[in-house]
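Protocol step 4 of 6.
Sequence for Helicase (Sphagnum jensenii) entered exactly as in the expression construct, tag removed. Do not edit the line below.
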Amino acid sequence: MPTGTGKSLVIAELIRRIMQQYPYQRIVCATHRKELITQNSETLRGQWPTVPFGIYSAGLNAKQAKHSIVFAGIDSAYRYPEKFGVVNLLFIDEAHLLSPKSETKYHQFIRGLKKNSPCLKIVGFTATPYRMGQGLITDDGIFTDICYDISDYKSFNNLVADGFLATLISKRSATQVDFSELSLGADGDFNKSELEALLDTQDINYKICKEFCEYSQDRKSWLLFAAGISHAENLASILRAFGYPGSAVHSKMHVKERNAAIAAFQSGEYRFLVNNNVLTTGFNHPAVDLIGMVRPTTSTGLWVQMAGRGMRVASGKANCLLLDFGGNTARLGPINDPLIPRKKGTGKSGTPAIKICPFCGVYNHASAKHCTYCGKELPVFTQLNQTADTLDVIRTDLPLCEWFDVDRAIYTKYMPKDKPPMMRVTYICGMTTFEEYILLEHTGGILHKARKWWSERINMRNVPPTIDEALKLTKHLIVPKRIYVHTNRMHNGKNYPDIIKFEWVTK
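Step 5 output, structure tokens:
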């Protein structure tokens, strides 16, 4: 579920219903930050005032592992899984943080719980079900399926239209820095020391703060993301010199000092916070209406999590303006339709679905006909200014994409050698045809993708388990109006066009 749509409420209501129907269950809800432990437990108390629960967290000075419901910090719990006894359900909040590697804290905790609870079930909750280098968290990890997803483009926009999320307006800043010469660290993101050395100069910091303040006059709560601790301190110093109250927050601050600064920001005493690696996930302050993204990243998950801090709805807040000094929107796409990272060795993630308004410079989704900020009609095609790319890189790495109108679709059974059967879908687009294969009899992430494909095309609760059963139902499938095709997939090891998007008839 997108950031701001109430995962804590979902967790609380799920626990309440489970315990009222099956009162002998034991549930542990684990996460990585004490603030999330407090938020999740207090939300459950609001949903179910009389519920008894325990908290196991050194940061909250509590070691209550024997309750039927326990909210636990993974840093405290992973060493002592035996203290929790038999556990039927393990909930993991911010599940994208769970690495597929076997020696992480979560894996140690799970292995320990399974000694007493071999039938343990694990459920993850996240706004970003993917990781750099892994792809979807259902690829080669402990999670096998995504059972509920409203983070896709259509669902996301419906949440905004229905008032559950605030509108996020992403604007390309005038101050742009070229990051093309930076190397990547072991985690696949920009090298942190090189990045901070490039950005944290007096000239660049002054230009960024000056431009930021020019857009800030009607904005009440500002949140900035810096590239390092020194960078955060220097940006905060300049903003204070401009006359605005606020502070930097980072990992080297004393906990009491950091908590005091965050409290002052949430109460309205501080106009701004500049943070580094503190408020990227789990920070809940709905009033944020201006974000300064001064931290570039190659991580789609980090980008979506940071930008999502401005998506919560608040009284008197019309929208949240995001000034993208790091070029993340052009690099990774809009947060409601970002480039999903792929597993290592499977090629690049593609190109972001954006276009820039030539009148006000705001980023819009590629399908938008009018600018979300100024309302002016957008041209059909907009050339992006790719400051971090060279012409050669564009020629070799960027696929050629084109929309094709679909006349009809034909469904047939395909029997590959030594593999389960597939359903071949052939789209007739005038004199051109394109094919894709639906793998309902496979396993893992491929099966999840096939099930999602099916559920988008038919109002049917159960997905057929075999291709033969699926073919009997194809007359009920909705055929897309148009398909968006990568027509030069040869460079990614494929020798056929790749269908990546669909457009449906609006009823």
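Step 6, annotate. Confidence is low (pLDDT under 50) at residues 381-399, 489-494.
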